[in-house]
Specification:
The complex is a heterodimer.
Chain A (H helix, E strand, L loop, with lengths): L3 E10 L2 E11 L4 E5 L6 H8 L7 E6 L2 E2 L5 H6 L1 E5 L10 H11 L4 H14 L16 H13 L5 E5 L7 H17 L3 E5 L3 H7 L2 E6 L2 E7 H6 L4 H12 L1
Parallel strand pairs in A: 3-8, 3-9, 6-7, 7-8
Antiparallel strand pairs in A: 1-2, 1-4, 4-5, 9-10
Helix pairs in contact in A: 3-4, 3-5
Chain B lengths: L1 H15 L8 E7 L2 H16 L3 E8 L2 H9 L5 E5 H8 L8 H12 L1 E3 L9 E6 H7 L4 H4 L8 E2 L1 H5 L4 H8 L6 E2 L2 H9 L5 E5 L4 H4 L2 E4 L11 E6 L4 H8 L7 H12 L5 H11 L14 H36 L4 H13 L2 H12 L3 H25 L3 H9 L4 H31 L12 H10 L2 H29 L11
Parallel strand pairs in B: 1-2, 6-7
Antiparallel strand pairs in B: 3-10, 4-10, 5-8, 5-9
Helix pairs in contact in B: 1-15, 2-14, 15-18, 15-20, 15-22, 16-18, 17-18, 18-20, 19-20, 20-22, 21-22
Classes of the chains: A alpha/beta, B mainly alpha.
């Protein structure tokens, strides 16, 4: 009963094949990291799941149903989405950023306030930051706000596109720890795109390896580390882990 | 806001205007030159004296503006000249008598040309007294002897068949004249920037600027008998009353009346009233001629703000959604912005003139023209601001599940707001400036004293309109700065250094 499944999915841009014939089922309630060299189609794969990219061929099912492309906003409200560089809205305060979707869903004021404080505590953000604007926060703090915003409606699926990419090593470490903590408390189905294999191994239970738009290998971290499916996977792992 | 302006205007007009007369309202027009104002004011006061309510639409752009306004019923009458009617309007191939002219106007346009005021104000060619002496200039033929004289003519004279083209042919003048605003030509001659210009033979300025009229030795210029041109449908009683003005003014008297305004700085109203009294045409004892200066200023400013504001709000109502549409439908963005840009390049006075056939004269065509001018800055800024939003923010707002409308409302428009507001500010300031020209088509406002001042060479009068207009523009700038502070988080504002 997988929440996310791709069936023979291809995405073509002109002559270029960003995704090629992908058959893939994401395991429920675990974190799957999508890795591969740059240009391998990682981001495209992620955006196929929330309909930002529509496949040229094939079917994408989310919550066990094929995506209805006429009703994307409703689907997306049930999928948390966070990107590199946070994508926080500069004209909204921290609180307004976090609660935008809740306000649009007409939550009452008390409920919104409680949820904001709950989320901010969860990611170790001082509640006093609620009225600040994003530009007044450090990169790590902004990233935490981005996560809060993605979590506000408590989605069962999380799509994270290089969310920790732009952070310094110490901050990244902290947030990664918090991320694991969150996942422990309440397991969600998470798809994490990262160019950093170490991060993938640390945060994810399962890996998807892509090369030039094709699925090369899919399995648990252990399976793939112990039994790489091809020379490409072996050399990709070696080059990444030796650095 | 609109209603507030209107009620303010109504209140002020009750305060300043004459007692609302019992009779019907007559709209009196005039072209924007001294004599036109005086003759129109004389006619207006005469009608007021006999109990009619008069609306003054003075200082209209030119012959065609007045004539079209009269045909469309925007005005009921205005002073015109027989030669102008023959040449510029009817384009008759040969000269006709006054009686024939009246018949043609009645038949073709249902207009009545009343009996002449009694003088002819023909075109004449003038040079400074000093130049006439040095070069020995006495007749227009003498001009052909010199090749280095600088000619500058009013635009109307320059382009009329009975103006420069025919004059050059008749006298064999090789000069290449420049076009210059009539009032400015006198100054140009005094400053020795210009040698030869066209004047009207009854011009009060001739005396003031010490000019010499050259003799029309080949009898080129036709007669220009001044008379009121009125709509055929106008009340016979009104025509009869205006008929009392026939034959009351000689050319010398007209020069005197013109001079009283130009040299003695009397108001049109004063000069007209004095004239009517001396002619024994007034029945009542006369009334207060002018409201207080400040009252008039306030009234004009209110009209000005009203014109600008209505046009601006209409411009926003069209251009902001237009900008959003362009943003959503990229394909139409170039043609639409080019079209709006094209509108912007039409000279204001020409755009105002274009509006007359569709909207007549007064506030309506002015507002439409100002509205068109407001479009481009708002449209361009709206579209540009939306296009330049960080693509990551756009992707996130889509990806998190906002609908197209929600994205616009909560993300895209707020982010574009500073630039859109800057566009609205630009449009507002442009409109305040351009609205001064609206007085040429009878819309009133702060342009009124400017237009009159230009006709009279009266710098004080020009400043009376120009200074408040400039202040209004500055206050508007401040207002928008305040609005920015109020509406937009500080870190999103553009730095003033740009």
């Amino acid at each position: 009963m997988a929440q996310i499944a791709l069936e023979k999915v291809s995405r073509v841009y002109g002559d270029e094949k960003a995704l090629q014939d992908i058959d893939l089922t994401f395991a429920d309630d675990v974190t799957t990291a999508v890795v591969g060299p740059s240009g391998s189609g990682k981001s495209t794969l992620l955006q196929v799941i929330n309909g930002l990219v529509r496949p040229s061929h094939g079917t994408v099912s989310v919550f066990r149903e094929p995506i209805d492309y006429g009703r994307l906003p409703e689907l997306r409200l049930r999928i948390g989405y966070a990107v590199q560089g946070t994508g926080l809205f500069p004209h909204l305060t921290v609180e307004e950023n976090i609660t935008l979707l809740a306000r649009l869903a007409k939550w009452d004021v008390e409920q919104i306030k409680a949820r904001t404080e709950e989320l901010m505590r969860l990611v170790n953000l001082p509640v006093s930051f609620a009225q600040r604007y994003p530009h007044e926060l450090s990169g790590g703090q902004q990233q935490r706000v981005g996560l809060c915003r993605a979590m506000v409606l408590n989605p069962r699926i999380f799509l994270l596109d290089e969310p920790f990419g732009a952070l310094d090593p110490i901050t990244r470490n902290e947030i990664q720890r918090e991320f694991l903590h969150l996942q422990q408390m309440e397991a969600r189905t998470i798809v994490l795109v990262t160019h950093d294999l170490r991060e993938a191994l640390k945060l994810a239970q399962r890996l998807v390896v892509l090369d030039r738009g094709s699925l090369v290998q899919h399995g648990t971290c252990k399976e793939i580390l112990e039994d790489p499916a091809s020379g490409f996977v072996r050399s990709f792992f070696q080059s990444q882990l030796e650095q | 806001m609109h209603t507030a302006v209107i009620s303010l205007v109504t209140f002020l007009s009750l305060l300043l205007g004459p007692d609302p007369a019992r009779g019907q309202t007559v709209v009196v027009g005039s072209k924007h030159f001294n004599e036109g104002y005086i003759l129109a004011e004389i006619s207006a006061q005469l009608l007021e004296d006999r109990g009619f309510r008069v609306e003054r639409k003075f200082g209209l752009g030119g012959t065609l503006v007045c004539f079209e306004a009269l045909r469309n019923g925007e005005i009921g009458l205005y002073p015109e000249y027989s030669g102008t009617l023959e040449q510029a309007i009817l384009k008759l191939p040969h000269r006709v008598s006054h009686r024939e002219l009246r018949e043609i106007l009645k038949r073709r346009f249902d207009l009545d040309l009343l009996e002449s005021f009694g003088f002819s104000n023909t075109y004449a060619i003038a040079v400074s007294r000093r130049l006439a002496r040095v070069r020995g200039l006495k007749t227009i033929s003498d001009l052909a002897k010199f090749s280095n004289l600088r000619f500058g003519f009013s635009h109307e004279f320059l382009n009329r068949q009975d103006g420069w083209p025919g004059l050059a042919r008749t006298y064999g003048l090789p000069a290449r004249p420049v076009g210059i605003e009539h009032g400015l030509a006198y100054h140009a001659i005094r400053e020795d920037r210009l040698d030869v210009t066209d004047v009207y033979s009854t011009d009060g300025d001739i005396k003031k600027f010490d000019l010499v009229l050259l003799e029309d030795d080949r009898r080129y210029f036709p007669e220009y008998l001044a008379a009121l041109l009125v709509r055929g449908g106008l009340d016979e009683q009104i025509k009869r009353i205006l008929g009392e003005l026939a034959g009351t003014i000689t050319a010398a008297e007209m020069q005197g009346l013109n001079g009283q305004v130009l040299l003695e700085r009397k108001s049109f109203a004063e000069v007209a009233q004095q004239f009517l009294r001396e002619e024994g045409l007034l029945r009542s004892q006369g009334q207060a001629l002018l409201g207080s200066r400040w009252g008039t200023l306030l009234f004009r400013a209110a009209t000005h703000v009203e014109l600008t504001l209505i046009a601006l709000v209409a411009g926003m109502a069209v251009a902001i959604p237009g900008g959003i549409l362009i943003y959503r439908l990229r394909a139409i963005s170039k043609p639409v912005v080019y079209l709006a840009g094209l509108l912007q390049t039409i000279p204001s006075i020409a755009l105002l003139a274009f509006m007359i056939p569709f909207f007549g004269i007064g506030a309506k065509p002015a507002i439409v023209a100002l509205f068109l001018y407001a479009l481009l800055p708002i449209l361009r800024n709206t579209a540009a601001a939306l296009f330049s939003i960080d693509p990551v923010l756009k992707r996130v707002s889509v990806g998190m599940g906002l609908t197209a409308w929600q994205r616009l409302r909560y993300v895209e428009l707020p982010l574009a707001a500073p630039t859109i507001l800057a566009g609205i500010k630009t449009a507002a300031v442009i409109n305040i400036g351009t609205a001064t020209l609206a007085a040429f088509i009878g819309a009133g406002g702060l342009g009124e004293p400017i237009v009159t001042g230009l006709a009279l060479n009266d710098t004080t009068l020009i400043l009376e309109g120009a200074v408040p207009a400039a202040l209004l523009a500055i206050v508007t700038e401040w207002g928008f700065e305040g609005l920015e502070k109020l509406l937009i988080p500080k870190h999103l504002l553009q730095k003033p250094a740009e």
